[in-house]
Design brief:
The protein has about 575 residues and is an alpha/beta fold. The protein has helices spanning about 5-15, 195-205, 210-225, 285-295, 315-335, 355-370, 385, 400-405, 405-410, 435-450, 510-530, 530-540, 555-570, 575-580; strands at about 20, 25-30, 50-55, 60-70, 75-85, 90-100, 120-125, 130, 135-145, 155-165, 165-180, 190, 240, 300-305, 340-345, 375, 395, 415-420, 455, 495-500, 505. The chain is globular.
Length: about 575
């Protein structure tokens, strides 16, 4: 039987075998780009079958919805099995909820329609027995991971809902793995801040930040971030931070927490370069560099200037300390063949009064190390024309890309990164109260505009949630959390949540952002395989421009499948490959 007929037969069989309703429990599937609220009814009609399409090396998610009719249900469990699968991995999580309020800061309120107030889905909590109140819908998040050596083909999945030993529902789904490989080595030059001081402040690891236990914790979090295609390359290799020392619960400033100074004062040296003796110690950065290189880390920051210090306030002592640091770190990185990957982060989002400081900081770095790059993040469009000559890497906001004129700078050959933040707050963005499709679109737009990568200012800027271990009900069946917003709009500054025992918990926003970056990497692969025009045509279907990308989740799902099909069509058969060899 031809392959497509076999797949159709499976789909028909699975559709007939699906049993989405037992008693008072009804089930359905939903896109990962759909935000499902507890009060929502199931979609009409109910989605009774689901097919996950993916490449080897890719991760894809979907939602399994459980709705309670006619009474509360306690202690529900979901079991998942994948038959015919030697090495596919299915990770399940409970969708958790955070509560917004009418008085929360919403900079976009004047131009956006009124949003719902109440429980919004975002944190992905560890799977455990859970409750569903009568009339409510609880999503279970399912992430399928296909290793690069996964066998292409069609796999059968089965989800069983139980209450104790009593079966309530069973529903089947399909996973189609295409003979296409997404390499582990990532091409995008993505970068995020994930302050180590925030992690330590929350978990208070025994032995302090100098301990092996904390370093293992940090590596665990860094690996999770890289697996989501947004590694903490802004600060995980950073040893000189001139920013003002901040409190453990301060969300926003990019300066170090007091713990990152390892008990020392009068210096800008910080963990992980600052050693226990107070001198340089590069063994931790060497280990982190190796971790990053597993995922293709192209570049990383080794130092950052204070955004509040004008050039006139830059002391000779600070300049000498920076020079000594750059020479010592530079010599070490050159021995490792990694100097080309290093850069220094200049004044963050400098106001016009700090533009002269930006120029002088850049010239200072070049006077010490002419071949060391500088990175400059700008949030004023007119600053690009004035400062692009004083940066090797330009970082601008997505909705200011056109007005800044940075496209001409990019075409001249300079590296351009783009970002989202609390301002400008236009779509696409990563607020909890924005559609999940915004996150997916960012990757497609990154490919569409030829941008080198994406920047985000915070994976774990938790504010007053720092140190609050019981923010979620990890032992009960409740999925409503006690997570509090920071001074910024909901979600701004964090994509990861702190789980128990040092476990990083991802979010709906981060999962969709990752899927978009994987699409971007696959589009680049298609461009190299079948020609740029063919990949551009597909990208333009859903991401024509910053102002006109699609907002229907199904459009991106269909485009993702077509992308895999085109890559498969352009792949030589085994016989052709043998002849070519």
């Amino acid at each position: 039987m031809p392959g497509h007929q076999l797949q159709l037969a499976w789909l028909v069989a699975f559709s007939c075998a699906a049993t989405p309703s037992f008693g008072a429990i009804r089930t359905s599937f939903a896109s990962p780009m759909t935000k499902v609220f507890l009060e929502d009814p199931l979609p009409a009609p109910v989605v009774s079958n689901w097919t996950v399409s993916m490449a080897r090396g890719e991760q894809e998610s979907f939602q399994f919805l459980i709705h309670a009719d006619g009474g509360d249900h306690h202690g529900l469990t979901v079991e998942n099995s994948l038959s015919g699968s030697a090495n596919l991995v299915a990770k399940m999580s409970l969708v958790g909820y955070v509560r917004t309020a009418a008085g929360d800061p919403r900079p976009w309120a004047e131009r956006e329609p009124a949003l719902r107030i109440g429980w919004w889905p975002d944190p992905l909590l560890p799977l455990r027995p859970f409750d569903v109140a009568s009339g409510e819908t609880q999503p279970v998040w399912i992430r399928i991971e296909a290793p690069v050596d996964a066998r292409p083909g069609l796999y059968r999945g089965l989800l069983r809902v139980r209450q104790g030993r009593r079966p309530l529902a069973s529903v089947r789904y399909l996973v189609r793995v295409f003979p296409v490989t997404l390499p582990k080595l990532q091409q995008l030059r993505n970068a995020a801040f994930m302050p180590a001081g925030n992690l330590f402040a929350h978990y208070q690891t025994a032995g302090g930040m100098e301990s092996a236990a904390f370093f293992e914790l940090y590596q665990r979090w860094a690996r999770e971030a890289f697996s989501q295609h947004l590694g903490p390359t802004f600060d995980m290799m950073m040893g000189w931070n001139q920013g003002q020392i901040r409190t453990d619960t301060t969300a926003g400033p990019l300066g170090p927490t007091g713990n990152m100074l390892l008990g020392r004062r009068g210096s800008h040296l910080v963990w992980p370069v600052l050693g226990q003796s107070g001198a340089y110690d590069f063994h931790l950065t060497d280990a982190l560099d190796e971790l990053g290189r597993e995922y293709g880390m192209h570049q990383f920051s080794i130092g950052i200037f204070d955004r509040e210090t004008p050039w006139s306030g830059q002391t000779e002592e600070a300049k000498r300390e920076l020079e000594d640091f750059l020479r010592a770190y530079g010599a070490h990185l050159k021995k490792r063949g990694r100097w080309e990957a290093a850069y220094v982060y200049n004044v963050d989002e400098p106001p016009e009064g700090q533009w002269d400081t930006v120029r002088n900081n850049h010239l200072l770095v070049k006077s010490i190390a002419p071949d060391l790059k500088t990175w400059l993040c700008l949030n004023q469009p007119k600053a690009v024309s004035q400062l692009h000559s004083y940066a090797d890497i330009l970082d601008v906001y997505i909705r200011q890309y056109d007005s800044s004129g940075v496209e001409g700078v990019r075409k001249s050959g300079k590296q351009v990164i783009w970002a989202v933040c609390v301002w400008p707050n236009e779509h696409p963005n990563l607020f909890i109260e924005y559609p999940a499709v915004d996150a997916r679109a960012i990757g497609w737009l990154t490919y569409r505009y030829g941008i080198s990568g994406f920047e985000y200012w915070g994976l774990n800027q938790w504010g007053e949630n720092t140190g609050v271990r019981d923010w979620a009900n990890f032992r009960s069946g409740e999925t409503r959390t006690r997570w509090r917003r920071t001074k910024w709009p909901w979600g701004d500054g964090w994509l990861l949540y702190p789980g128990e025992n040092g476990e990083p918990l991802t979010s709906i926003r981060f999962e969709n952002l990752r899927d978009g970056f994987e699409d971007s990497e696959l589009l680049s692969q298609l461009a190299g395989q079948a020609g740029r025009d063919r990949a551009d045509e597909l990208a333009a279907e859903v991401a024509g421009s910053i102002e006109s990308y699609h907002t229907n989740p199904q459009d991106f799902a269909n485009a993702h499948t077509r992308l895999l099909q085109r890559l498969e069509q352009g792949k030589p058969s085994a016989r052709q490959a043998t002849r070519r060899d």
